[in-house]
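Regression test case RT-17, inverse folding.

Input:
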């Protein structure tokens, strides 16, 4: 029975998580401003940045991480997102980029990892219940939201 459960998990969980994350992320980006982040949340976001983003974007977020020169497409300078967007931080666009789930399959794979899927997988663990997926989606969405708000705080 355990083997059957794992098979079903492997088969249905990615589809379920994708649906749940898209449902939650639609409203996740506009409700909170960077100033709403409390210091512990900002610290967790900075930790996520250092763990997941700095290897490509660098600890200073300027695109010069240790593996940057090995990549086909140079990583973006994340301190200039607002500048490139005409002066205001494009919260929803950055959220979708980090989430990574809105890329059409016809465009191939993204050069940037799909962190939303990883965060959901980390949050759901072995659970396959729909409530587990909803909880995981909420946790992943909050984590991405904090990361995006952290990026907003480092704009030059």
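Golden output:
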């Amino acid at each position: 029975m355990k083997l059957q459960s794992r098979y079903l998990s492997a088969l249905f969980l990615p589809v379920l998580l994708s649906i749940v994350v898209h449902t939650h992320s639609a409203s996740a980006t506009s409700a909170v401003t960077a100033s709403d982040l409390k210091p512990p949340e900002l610290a967790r976001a900075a930790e996520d940045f250092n763990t997941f983003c700095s290897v490509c974007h660098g600890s200073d977020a300027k695109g010069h991480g240790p593996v940057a020169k090995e990549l086909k497409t140079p990583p973006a300078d994340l301190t200039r997102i607002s500048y490139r967007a005409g002066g205001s931080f494009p919260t929803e666009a950055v959220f979708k980029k980090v989430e990574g789930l809105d890329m059409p399959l016809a465009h191939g794979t993204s050069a940037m990892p799909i962190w939303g899927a990883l965060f959901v997988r980390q949050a759901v663990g072995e659970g396959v219940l729909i409530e587990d997926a909803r909880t995981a989606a909420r946790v992943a969405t909050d984590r991405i939201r904090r990361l995006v708000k952290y990026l907003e705080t480092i704009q030059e």
